[in-house]
Write a structure and sequence with these properties.
Blueprint (H helix, E strand, L loop, with lengths): L11 H13 L2 H8 L3 H15 L4 E3 L4 E3 L1 H21 L14 E5 L1 H17 L4 E5 L2 H9 L5 E4 L8 E15 L1 H6 L2 H5 L9 E2 L5 H11 L9 E2 L3 H9 L5 E4 L4 H6 L3 E2 L8 E9 L6 H14 L8
Parallel strand pairs: 3-4, 3-5, 7-8
Antiparallel strand pairs: 1-2, 5-11, 6-9, 6-10, 6-11
Helix pairs in contact: 1-2, 1-3, 1-4, 2-3, 5-12
Length: about 300
Amino acid sequence: MRHRQVDGSMDLTQLRTFLAVYRAGSITAAAGQVGLSQPTVTTQLQALERQVGRPLFERLPRGVAPTAAAHDLAARVAAPLDALESVIGDGSEAGVTAVEPPVLLGGPAELLATLVLPALAPLVADGVRLAVSTGLADDLLTDLRLGKLDLVVSTIRPRGRTVLAETLADEEFVLVAAPEVAARADLERLRANDFGGVPLVTYAPDLPIVRRYWRHVFDTRLEADPGLVVPDLRAVLAAVVAGAGVSVLPSYLCTRELASGAVEKLWDPQDAPINTVFLARRVGGPVRPHVDRVRARLLAAAREWHDCPD
């Protein structure tokens, strides 16, 4: 049976195919997910593009990239199609067990590498497939709303009624340096923005974590130029351990280094700055047992984390 009138004269089958391509970023991968041949998928996309009046995808050396028209269409149809899919199922023949697609998980690279993926390793060994994306929280939450991700570990609280957010844990930030740097660092001078001979190491030129620490702990506005900028907190830690300078890091990231003496806290405030990390998922998506298993595992594992990342 053919279903119409979702958006003018658009066909539900075409929209379902479009959404699979949009989420997979590949005609080949989407064809496997919807059980069609690649030529059929291409034909359906071409028909949909004629109705939309604009191209939906640009061909890349590997896969396809959605156009602005595709982003707009996905934003309008993803939630209704997911809700319908959860009601009618995936169309598998009776008695045939469908292979679950990978769970699409997004989050900050440092948190994923240090805490999240080790916690999920038993599920992978048990047959749960994962496809992981890293990036900024705002970008990942946008992909979640559009259905390009199933779950997002977010360092900002998601807004809006289309996303559900659960608290995972609180992260705490610490001011650290290697012992030889700590020995020559004068905390009172640092508090007064005098870093003479002690460079700042940070993951962004505008010093977001360090500025927040100075404001919260020292009640002063940080005015300093970084000596080293590297966009990965693990690399920041490595540089600090090697004696490049001082930095502010989430304590989960340097637990072993603090315990071994590779780095030292320069200050231990009673009220350290913290940040809450959330696990976000879409409202009204299709029933996905493996997504539910990943979510449950992360919520359980987070109870064992002392804190979380930025």
